[in-house]
Task: structure prediction
Amino acid sequence: MRLTAESLVAALLLAGGIAAGAAFLRAPGEAVDTDHHEHGGHAHQIEHEDVLEGPHGGRLLEEGDFAVEITIFERGVPPELRLYCYEGQKHLPPAQCEVDMTLHRLGEPPEPFRFREVGDFLVGDHVVAEPHSFVVEVRARRRHDPGPAHSWRYESFEGRVVLDEEVARHSGLLAEAAQPRRLERTLRLPGRISARRDRVVDLGARFAGVVREMSRSIGDAVSRGETVAVVEASQTLSRYAVQSPLQGVVVDKRAATGETVEAGETLLVVGDFSSVWADFDVYAADFASVHAGDTVTVRGSAGDAGASAPVTYVSPVGDPHTQTTMARVELDNQDQRWKPGLFVTGTIALDEPPAAVAVHVSALQTWRGGESVFLKIGDVYEARPVVLGRRGEEWVEVLEGLDAGDQYARGNTFVLKAELQKAQASHDH
Result:
């Protein structure tokens, strides 16, 4: 089907979820014979023509009193060609029939098939790979017949759209070659800010006694070596000073002037938050991807510009409740923007080998229950099922279905999918 400027608007408005159309090797409008063809219906997007159907639900090719029925059988086996021969409307044993078939796929070399006898039919010598979209050439004769072979050639297309270059450009479609690319994959880790344990201290009474002075309260800044409390010892009645071993801020106050305290009892808690930890949860699937020294970009929940720092520690033990391990980053916090207790997100750029074949993420469309990419040759676009590998932020690895150098469509590829769905809807009615 050729997509014109007039049909572009309708294609863009079409919603998904339309049932599949006429079967690949069947007459249109007939019920599918699920015992012999389970492909789910392959729509003829380029041309919709009436074809004869044979006793096994396949396409029937006739010339004179000789006929060949072609089916694709998929129940319990990979798709395979099964052929049945007839003469004078009677079934011919497969040993009396010689058939050669060639499939011509878009942008690929011819694919010949040879056949062997199995029961009452002939079966092809290899799997009929997806997509089942091709021009078919068939040559057949009754074995030992001295006359010329019968020949047929027909089109059996699916997932194919013809699109003018001008319409493609206006609809936001771009064409480029599949090629090796670095995927630039990233790993996102949930985390939280915590105070460094080596920079939070409890200031306690060395001897039991009475607090005579308490010069600092919660939130007050404290200098290193500063006296923050004075305690009178109960046994000696002498007074001693309680000093802060670091510069920071009072985060907790647990005693007051005049209060009796025991030896070792905490009076104040002082913390230095000029440097903090960001602790991230690493799930089991990502253990091998996180190492000490990896650079992490840390962002708060407000989506600020963030900060980058290396992983300083990866815990050798896991949490039995969350089934995660911990990766730690030290963050400079002179401006006090990282608040202990708040959630953050860490992003690590993974160092991986480039993909041998990759396409842009905008090229992917779901078609017949799987991922597909539209191959482009000239004005023809055809949905090709693909097997995907690793995914990056912008590119995705293709393991099967496209080769390096193949031209494919990216950008607004939904317009192609919508046109296929519209063609199926018209065929179903």
User: Anything to note?
Assistant: Helices lie at 5-13, 165-170, 414-428. The two ends are 16 Å apart (CA to CA).
